Amino acid sequence: MLRGKHKRYEKLYLYSLNQQHPALHEISDEDFIGCWEEDGLAILFFHRPKRALVQNLARKLGLNLEDEAEVSYDEWGEGRKVKVLQIGPITLRPVWQAGEGLRFDPGVVFGSGNHPTTRLCLSWIYRLWKESGPFKKAVDLGCGAGLLSLLLTALGAEVLAADFNPLCVALTQKNLVINNLAQKARVIREDVRKLPPFEADLVVANLFKGLLLDLFGLPSFWTAKHYLLSGFSPSMEEELKKALWSGAKIRGREEKDGWVIWYLENKKGHP
Ligand SMILES: C[S@@+](CC[C@H](N)C(=O)[O-])C[C@H]1O[C@@H](n2cnc3c(N)ncnc32)[C@H](O)[C@@H]1O
Questions:
Q1: What mean pLDDT is predicted for residues 166-186?
Q2: pLDDT mean over 103-126
Q3: Tens-digit pLDDT profile for residues 5-48
């Protein structure tokens, strides 16, 4: 995430290491953006080239530098630029854009608002809020950069946000802090399949088909009343529909650029 003198992202320098290590999150270099952990690997992100620093650190920690790359920030976001988002009366703007509204550091993780699923979730959160809210408690499963949690807390909910990627947890926390909304949210590093039953009115889960199927099979998942689910394409809908719990009914659906969002109401499971 952005720190110190860095006010935006231009070039990204990525270094992939063969193993994770806690010390990789504590690198004190002014150009360090963060450490992404996935599938046992650690990927370090910097604003400037840092091969010597990474090689030294890897040697000290007994790790191997396996790959490196230089990409522009726009390439990293698959060519989708980070922009100002308008959700009803609420504006969300990247920290480098002056103006009113919620501000966010988009970071290098998923969820900077440039993906159709994030935008679908944001607009449905607001829509549902007006039609069926307000909601006291909400859960953001796989919080990414934390934009959904930002909107939910700004609308007045107490939020539990979870992600297994430590960089997402740190960025979501930062984005809540810079908007003075941190006191309304708890951000935890956890596999969403391991969370206790939700005490929430609304669960938002922008994930992927396999993980949604896993969650559908857990009784602890079906303890809220309203659900917004995204992260899948139209061709996956039949399989997902078959796996839904019988108490959950699809009450809304929208498609954007090949991605789908469902709004579900859960009748039977809600306490
Ligand atoms: C598609 S992104 C959504 C990010 C954000 N909620 C949004 O809508 O823009 C999915 C997020 O889920 C996280 N994730 C994937 N599998 C997970 C798991 N099993 N447990 C926790 N988080 C997970 C990823 O790290 C990623 O940040």
A1: 97
A2: 94
A3: 999 999 999 999 999 999 999 999 999 999 999 888 999 999 99
Which part of the chain has CATH 3.40.50.150?
Answer: 103-266
The class that CATH gives domain 103-266 is alpha beta
CB–CB of 126/265 below 8 Å?
no
Residue 226 bridge partners (DSSP): 202, 265
User: Is 80 exceeded by the pLDDT of residue 79?
Assistant: no
Could you count the other beta carbons within 10 Å of the beta carbon of residue 166?
Answer: 18
Question: Quick one: pLDDT at residue 258?
Answer: 97
Q: In whole angstroms, what is the distance from residue 163 CA to residue 169 CA?
A: 6
- Say yes or no: CB of residue 44 within 6 Å of ligand 1: no
Name the residue of 207, 227, 232 to mutate for ligand 1: max ligand atoms within 8 A of Cβ. Answer: 207
- Give CA angle at 154 (149, 155), nearest 5°: 100
Backbone angles phi, psi at 91, to 5 degrees: -100, 135
Run of H or E including 27: none
Q: How confident is the model at residue 270 (pLDDT cuts 50, 70, 90)?
A: low
Q: Greatest CA span in the chain, whole angstroms?
A: 58
Both tokens of residue 13? 């320098």
| 148 Cβ inside 6 Å of ligand 1 | yes
As beta bridge partners, residue 14 has: 45, 69
Query: Has domain 11-76 been given CATH number 3.40.50?
Result: no
Burial (CB count <10 Å: 0-12, 13-18, 19+), residue 53: middle
